[in-house]
Write a structure and sequence with these properties.
It contains four helices and eight strands, in the order H-E-E-E-H-E-E-E-H-E-E-H. It is of the alpha+beta class.
């Protein structure tokens, strides 16, 4: 009988120990995810369309962005415009010059400056034309990126 009681006692002790180990593993994984999210940086590429106009000796572009994307854009960020839809590599590089307030359609006008636009680009050909563009956002922490998305969706 004594042997059976000992066996029953061992079996009774095993589930709480397994549960304790499981909780510790989950807590460790959650802690690792929080540390990774707080330390890892992320750079997003916002794909949009940009209208290009001549401006003085260079070019200027305008893009309309929704609130959830504009919260990730800051002045000075790099913008690359694909001048050919064929993707043969003809590009124009500039930077975000300013971000205007929200218009009646709920979009924000982002002005892009191209101070070093090559002389070979015919500004008259570009006037009013729309091209695909990529805005490279600043590198920020993964958690901050998640909170920015929620902040943009809430309209704050």
């Amino acid at each position: 009988m004594r042997r059976r009681e000992r066996k029953d006692q061992l079996l009774a002790d095993e589930p709480p120990r397994a549960l304790g180990i499981s909780i510790a593993v989950v807590a460790l994984l959650l802690t690792a995810a929080v540390v990774a999210g707080a330390s890892m940086t992320y750079q997003q590429k916002i794909n949009t369309t940009i209208a290009i106009q001549p401006a003085g000796s260079g070019l200027r572009g305008e893009a309309l962005l929704p609130p959830d994307q504009v919260v990730q854009v800051r002045e000075g960020q790099r913008v690359i415009v694909d001048l050919n839809s064929s993707g043969d590599g003809a590009t124009l590089t500039g930077g975000v010059a300013s971000i205007q307030s929200q218009n009646r359609d709920g979009l924000y006008e982002v002005e892009i400056a191209f101070p070093d636009s090559p002389a070979s680009i015919n500004a008259l050909r570009l006037q009013g034309a729309e091209y695909p563009a990529t805005i490279y956002t600043q590198k920020i922490k993964v958690f901050a990126r998640v909170f920015n998305v929620f902040r943009g969706l809430s309209g704050k």
